[in-house]
Amino acid sequence: MARLNYDVIICGGGMTGLAMAAQLAALDLKIAVLESRRPTAFCVLDNFDLRVSAISPQTIALLETLGVWPRVEAMRSCPYRRLRVWEMRDFGDVTFDAAHLGCEELGFVVENRLLQLALWETVEALPQVDIHCPVVCSKFQRVADTVEVLSEDNRYFSGRLLIGADGANSAVREAFGIGVRGSQYRQSCLVASVATELEQQDITWQRFTSSGPQAFLPLPGRHASLVWYHREDQVKALQALEHNELAERIMAAFPTELGAVEVKASGSFPLYKQHANSYIQQNLALIGDAAHSINPLAGQGVNLGFQDSTNLAEVIKSRVSSDRDWWSRVALRPYQSQRSLVNGLMMHAMDGFYYGFSNDITPLMWARNGVLAAARSPLISRRVMRYAMGLDRLPNTFFSR
Known about the structure:
By secondary structure, this protein is of the alpha/beta class. It has helices at residues 15-25, 57-65, 69-74, 112-124, 171-175, 232-239, 243-253, 301-320, 329-357, 362-375, 378-388, 394-397, and strands at 2-5, 8-11, 31-34, 52-55, 78-80, 82-87, 93-97, 107-111, 129-132, 137-143, 146-151, 155-159, 161-164, 180-196, 203-209, 212-219, 223-231, 261-276, 280-281, 284-286, 292-293. The model is unreliable at 361-368, 370-385 and 394-401 (pLDDT under 50).
């Protein structure tokens, strides 16, 4: 039986796990990434994937530092320079513009597969990192001051630190008895990849209706990703329609700003949230969806995962440089305290938006009208957006001029 020794074992070769590996490689640690499936190669003729993310400037800065972003640009991505939020009852309408913030764009929309592929190609070239794929993990255990992972093909991986980056249904989290708190929302989400009648748009928008939000995310050329929140039964019925019938329903329900669309692909998923009771144990840390799953309302899930990886890398770096036990629970506590707080606040904020805007209760309608009206203030909108984009830190900039 093969036994492979590393400093760090990362279970999960998705976007967050690969970003984690790239950052730890800079500390000259020996790293193993265990993943069950390699991302497929890119072809310019490929259809657009259903799973896309709105990448913030903070995340792009990280990807540039790691040498990943040029690989993304060599494939495909779409910048957006404006962000519009409004209600169908015209109680409020606010547009954020990159020009008002002194930026070229507010962010980029990128297909998840292509971002993972760019990270994979970057990490695969690092001498400090071994990507083992395909690997399916079957057992996790602590042995003295190490953690061991047994794969289904009878390979043992041993390391000082195990990082769970294996998604919302994390096998790592479950194996070490870390519980989660969370709940299901009363809606599902329909996602559609569409061809658009209108020329390339530089805007992403979100409209709130009594049945749930609707969103538009631009993609290169005359393409876009549409997101439609609705009751579970309604999403199921929409998903069962032929593409031409679904296109008709979308154009009837969505704002006229959308224009005519042709549905290329569609999918759906239930809405839920969950937060791990702890991000750390001795020789163990959770990042990304393994630690927290957030309502995708503002598209912050992927960005939060990248922020987890950066924070954890900084915490480990501070201990490695002084030859202390960087894998211990004590060493990992700053990561736990910092990221659990920030991610928890973001989850509550998204709940506030979700429940506050998806109903017709009169007091809440007036309250959210006030929120949108305040957001039209140049000072407030500038500060809110710069914080959301990761360009400012809230404690230092939001409460002072």
